Write a sequence for this structure.
């Protein structure tokens, strides 16, 4: 059997690692970087470039350079977060036939799965070059708070890239595995993961080598990109006031602003001030206009206050769900490039009452954890195992559009739970069992992930005919729902095949293209 | 391992019934988790993965039951699980019975009689759910009530009025109400709970699927049950006001009703209305043609 690689498919950067001699090793890409920008560009002749080469095209080829595909993957174009994003992106987002958010590249609609597949294929090649053998299996990480469709879409991206995704692993959990491999004393960890696009918080207990996730919570729309956007808005608003030109309407200028904003943000993590210097950013009535100014760390932190404030609620919720207080947490592991920002570190310290752990590379630890998990699967690491949780409520829609929760969020998986339901109509002959995922009490506000019908019920007065619905979720988060009529034993079972919106045929077609 | 699980939680975890302590239960669980967690079988064929899942669920259930018998509550999300545990064991039986004929994703599966003995291929040891995984203290309620408890007939609920808005009459047919209040889960057999809390909600139902209802409409039309078809279509038309299809079908149904009652004029009028709404409605076209031909 070939090797299983661990891939952290990030919003901004991706990283690949393998397990060597029981230790996770991060692999350098062909350009010498330990992480690869999660970007792909399409040239005029249809060629695709990925990673650093694509990032260099951000300014020259903005409409055909896609970054942050992870924020679109598995989402609908009508999703408010996607709509919000679309207004600020240099490339165009459109709705696919099934309503999914796709990207328009020079008139060709492309799915986020395809874009992510190019990045995954690049990571696969990086690993193959290093290992000197073909790689066909991977553990890929996703934000803990990703829902079913987003996970499935990520799996499909792997398939397009020629990888069998053996496990979709939650990013904070992966980080905890990598961290805990060398700190195996019994302890409680809080993994504070602020990446390019998402914020996740997980509370774990390590006990005799078993990593048990106690709770996980997150915000899929809070990450480094949002901080960049605050800086972009700060600069663009000021520029508009002075010159009456909105830089955000010009995709090349916007791309340059984004680059400058990201650079300034990174520099302000170590310096107190930084210079932003964008000559010839626009053309005014009196000729070219330049954007030149100094940005101070204090200004950045003030502008980002509302984003920083958003960090607290998920942490509080995760602690409560884990039945912990901050004092119960032994270590805070900071993950994701954004945790380099001093203001973010301060917030984490304020919330948990202790500073974040040192000696962890926040950009690489997730990929290392994915590699550790591949070792658990392959049997190289016998003394470590992971017990994860499902981050979302799973339930059934009942009368009045209510969601009746069957599996509660933060239930350790695999798990099985069941509930009994009754008919609401005399002589009702069938029930439609609609399965929803999400926190809202109204089913329609959650995500519908499947439905099936249990028919031929024995006629009887309403309330008398009962159907027992049981949910079984395996360790991979895949749900199987089984309904049995109490009394007659008439049964129906369905495995929820989360759909990423691509058909098997589309995946195969894309696969042959991406592989080339 | 499965045989061990079926012989009770202590045996499942490899513990002596008498000498077990919360610590030894936990330690045994952690040791078994390292060995039998499904992730260990992640690269194996699907059927082995499924089996590993079942085995681990058994280990987990045994762990939680034993801890509960010591009065130790497991953390966070698993409170619900402990609640559902006795029920859960029943499910192990159920599914094992079903599996030979039920590949995942295929529905409906052959009927499974509740409480009937398992098929010959199933190890006997898995069946007695009441005794299989129940804690020695017998604190668990029976896994499956022998008879479904009676729900109160809800004297306060008025019968559906004939004049009720259409969406009610029809949608209730596929409504479901939980028999137990959804929060908090308890260890009582869920069916002993009254439905009271949920009655008012049932009046506003909508568990709604157009295709299912449309099929019902076609069935009703096939059976010449005009009343039922009209009620369903009224409901559909009210919920999907933008769709002319349902209104067209409704007119067509009225036409058929009139035709059967010998009111030819009315029938023609209704079919015409149907075709105005949906010029492609094949049924209306043929019915109209038939009617005109007979004249």
């Amino acid at each position: 059997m070939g090797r299983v690689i661990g891939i952290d498919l990030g919003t901004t950067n991706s990283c690949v690692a393998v397990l060597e001699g029981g230790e996770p090793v991060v692999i350098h890409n062909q350009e010498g970087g330990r992480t690869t920008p999660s970007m792909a560009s399409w040239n005029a002749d249809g060629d695709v470039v990925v990673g650093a080469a694509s990032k260099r095209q951000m300014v020259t080829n903005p409409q055909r350079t896609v970054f942050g595909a992870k924020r679109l993957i598995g989402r609908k174009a009508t999703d408010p977060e996607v709509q919000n994003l679309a207004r600020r992106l240099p490339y165009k987002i459109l709705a696919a036939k099934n309503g999914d958010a796709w990207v328009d590249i020079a008139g060709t609609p492309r799915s986020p799965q395809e874009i992510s597949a190019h990045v995954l294929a690049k990571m696969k090649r990086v690993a193959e070059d290093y290992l000197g053998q073909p790689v066909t299996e991977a553990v890929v990480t996703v934000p803990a708070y990703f829902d079913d469709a987003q996970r499935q879409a990520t799996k499909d991206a792997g398939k397009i890239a020629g990888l069998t995704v053996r496990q979709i692993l939650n990013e904070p959990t992966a980080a905890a595995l990598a961290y805990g491999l060398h700190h195996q004393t019994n302890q409680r960890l809080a993994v504070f993961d602020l990446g390019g696009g998402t914020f996740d918080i997980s509370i774990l207990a390590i006990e005799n080598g078993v990593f048990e996730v106690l709770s996980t919570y997150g915000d899929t729309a809070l990450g480094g990109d949002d901080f960049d956007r605050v800086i972009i808005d700060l600069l663009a608003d000021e520029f508009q006031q002075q010159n009456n030109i909105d830089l955000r309407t010009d995709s090349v200028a916007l791309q340059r602003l984004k680059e400058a904003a990201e650079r300034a943000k990174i520099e302000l993590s170590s310096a107190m001030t930084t210079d932003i210097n964008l000559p010839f950013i626009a053309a005014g009535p009196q000729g070219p206009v330049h954007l030149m100014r100094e940005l101070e760390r204090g200004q950045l932190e003030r502008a980002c206050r509302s984003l920083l404030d958003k960090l607290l609620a998920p942490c509080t919720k995760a602690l409560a769900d884990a039945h912990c207080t901050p004092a119960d947490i032994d270590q805070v592991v900071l993950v994701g490039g954004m945790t380099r920002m001093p203001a973010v570190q301060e917030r984490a310290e304020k919330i948990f009452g202790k500073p974040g752990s040192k000696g962890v590379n926040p950009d690489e630890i997730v990929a290392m954890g994915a590699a550790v998990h591949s070792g658990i699967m392959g049997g190289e690491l016998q003394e470590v195992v992971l017990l994860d949780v499902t981050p979302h409520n799973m339930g059934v829609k009942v009368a009045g559009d209510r969601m009746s929760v069957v599996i509660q969020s933060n239930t350790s998986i695999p798990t099985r739970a069941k509930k009994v339901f009754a008919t609401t109509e005399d002589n009702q002959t069938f029930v439609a069992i609609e399965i929803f995922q999400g926190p809202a009490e109204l089913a329609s506000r959650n995500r519908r992930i499947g439905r099936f019908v249990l028919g031929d019920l024995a006629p009887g007065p309403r309330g008398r005919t009962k159907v027992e619905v049981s949910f079984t979720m395996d360790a991979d988060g895949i749900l199987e729902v089984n309904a049995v009529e109490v009394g007659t034993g008439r049964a129906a079972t369905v495995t929820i095949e989360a759909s990423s919106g691509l058909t098997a045929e589309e995946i195969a077609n894309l696969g042959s293209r991406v592989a080339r | 391992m499965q045989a061990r699980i079926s012989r009770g939680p202590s045996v499942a975890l490899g513990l002596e019934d008498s000498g077990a302590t919360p610590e030894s239960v936990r330690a045994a669980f952690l040791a078994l988790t390292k060995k039998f967690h499904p992730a260990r079988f992640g690269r194996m064929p699907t059927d082995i993965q499924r089996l590993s899942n079942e085995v681990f669920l058994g280990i987990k259930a045994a762990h939680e039951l034993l801890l509960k018998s010591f009065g130790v509550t497991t953390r966070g999300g698993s409170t619900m699980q402990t609640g559902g545990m006795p029920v859960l064991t029943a499910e192990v039986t159920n599914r094992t019975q079903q599996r030979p004929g039920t590949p995942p994703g295929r529905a409906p599966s052959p009927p499974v009689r509740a409480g009937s003995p398992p098929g010959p291929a199933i190890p006997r040891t898995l069946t007695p759910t009441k005794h299989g995984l129940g804690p020695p203290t017998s604190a668990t309620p029976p896994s499956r009530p022998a008879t479904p408890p009676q729900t109160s007939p809800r004297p306060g609920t008025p019968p559906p009025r004939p004049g009720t808005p259409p969406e009610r009459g029809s949608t209730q047919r596929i409504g479901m109400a939980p028999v137990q209040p959804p929060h908090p889960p308890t260890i009582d057999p869920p069916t002993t709970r009254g439905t009271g809390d949920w009655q008012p909600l049932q009046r506003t139902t909508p568990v709604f699927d157009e295709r299912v209802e449309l099929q019902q409409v076609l069935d009703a039309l096939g059976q010449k049950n005009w009343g039922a078809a009209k009620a369903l279509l009224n409901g559909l038309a009210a919920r999907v006001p933008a769709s002319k299809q349902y209104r067209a079908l409704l007119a067509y149904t009225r036409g058929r009703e009139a035709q059967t009652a010998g009111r030819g004029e009315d029938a023609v009028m209704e079919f015409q209305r149907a075709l105005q709404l949906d010029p492609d409605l094949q049924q209306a076209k043929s019915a109209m043609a038939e009617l005109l031909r007979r004249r």
In short: DSSP finds 13 helices and 29 strands in chain A. Residues 112-131 of chain A form the longest helix (20 residues).
